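Q: My labmate handed me this sequence with no annotations at all. I'd like to see what the chain might look like in three dimensions before we decide whether it's worth expressing. Could you predict it?
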Amino acid sequence: MEDTLKSIQDFFYQIWTLVLTKHSQGVYNTICLVVLLSLPLLVLIITLVLCCHCCCCRHANRKTKKRKHLSNNDDLWISVKTGPMTPDRESRPD
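A: Here is what I predict for the chain of 94 residues:
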């Protein structure tokens, strides 16, 4: 466990050293580093927003479907006519 922690600390130390080196080389390199290092964070934020949006929309759609189902309950019934059928429906061509 300590070896893993040490390797993680070394990784972030190397990134920090790279940032300081590029910053001392010029402003353009600093801007490029900021953009490159912020891209994974941007992807993470967009993924979280999309997941939350999909979950909320799915939850909202379930509520509206239940309401529609309850209000349109009469539309599901087929009316039965007890009167005689018309002659064209009584005989079926084989």
